[in-house]
């Protein structure tokens, strides 16, 4: 069961032709979509898409780029919206020190708040991390000591050492179209060693179109190309990997199967 575990169906480039985009993905064998939010103002629209489409689910959270604008967001607001039956994940959230669009302390505080909500609800937290490996790992380890919570690193581009560390903490790793890029040799090596039961695939559409679609607006249909590349990289059959990643998705996002 091939699933796009991270896409932004309500973003410009996809929202204008959302039905067409979903149908194109279904024709390529995609059987589920996790529609991700990045700011509070998106929550209702992302959920509305999930309500309308039986094979689409929603996440609720605040991207680190948006942290400054949501510094006063309370736990109660996130808990309340997370109770919706089509909301199956918390995020995306995390740390981004590459662009530094928000104060790092505010990013860290919101990241910890999201983790607390994930722990309280049992919903997986969807983590964005860029140029922030040390602080991301420090927060994850510290929060795990307070109590375990389900989590994944989406659009994994970090070092192999970071990958091994988060796997030891019990996290899942999701690979995007970046793994297909010619200059992603280190990432490709990491992709080979992720345990089969901890691996997901995604598009992050409308961004990061994989080979052979570079230069195009990324669509959920393209997750099939990323999956095929990763299957060849790992020396496994494409259909077998699709089924495995589908099982992994439903194991992690258990609410999707409820």
UniProtKB/TrEMBL annotation:
PROSITE patterns: TATD_1, TATD_2, TATD_3. Keywords: Hydrolase, Metal-binding. It comes from the Bacteria. GO terms for molecular function: DNA nuclease activity; hydrolase activity, acting on ester bonds; metal ion binding. One of its GO terms (cellular component) is cytosol. Pfam families: TatD_DNase. NCBIfam families: YchF/TatD family DNA exonuclease. Belongs to the metallo-dependent hydrolases superfamily. TatD-type hydrolase family. This is LuxR family transcriptional regulator. It comes from Croceicoccus naphthovorans.
